[in-house]
Specification:
There is one protein chain. The chain is α+β, with helices and mostly antiparallel strands. It has a single domain, classed as 2-Layer Sandwich (Alpha-Beta Plaits), CATH 3.30.70. It is 43% helix and 33% strand. It has 4 helices and 4 strands. The protein has a 4-stranded antiparallel beta sheet with strand order 2-3-1-4.
């Protein structure tokens, strides 16, 4: 099963009723093509990094879908809707597989941590006491 993240930005001029119908349409298109909706997040109105079609804000929405097929039909429909400023569809299961492979290849080595300062100072003090104790027992000239 492939996992996809679909992020799209709607125009800020879209009324809420129309935005919900667009979102429901996109969900139904994905489900008709065999995708299963895993998660849906409405990020709300946010400032854009740069102006798109003279808009400085957009309404963000995220879907996480699982599908055996590619989401080409959903991609095509999002391209044709004027109310969608930008969209991106990313296959995320490949990223997880790569991360797991890298973790298997390069296991993390345990770092040897230095002893705390108080514990390090204690042996030094004990060593000085042993030296002075031995010096007292030695005959003086």
């Amino acid at each position: 099963m492939r996992t996809y993240e679909v992020l799209f930005i709607l125009s800020p001029q879209v009324p809420e009723e129309e935005a919900t119908t667009l979102i429901n349409d996109f969900k139904s298109i994905a489900e008709k093509n065999g995708a299963r909706l895993v998660n849906e997040e409405a990020w709300g109105r946010r400032r854009l990094a740069y102006p798109i079609q003279k808009f400085n804000e957009g309404v963000y929405h995220l879907f996480v879908l699982e599908s055996e097929q590619s989401l080409s039909e959903l991609d095509r429909r999002m391209k044709n809707v004027d109310r969608v400023l930008r969209h991106v569809i990313v296959r995320t299961d490949l990223e997880h597989k790569r991360a797991e492979k890298l973790a298997k290849r390069n296991p993390k080595k345990e770092r040897v941590r230095p002893a705390p300062a108080a514990a390090a100072a204690a042996p030094e003090a004990a060593g000085l006491d042993a030296m002075t104790a031995g010096a007292e027992d030695a005959p003086q000239a």
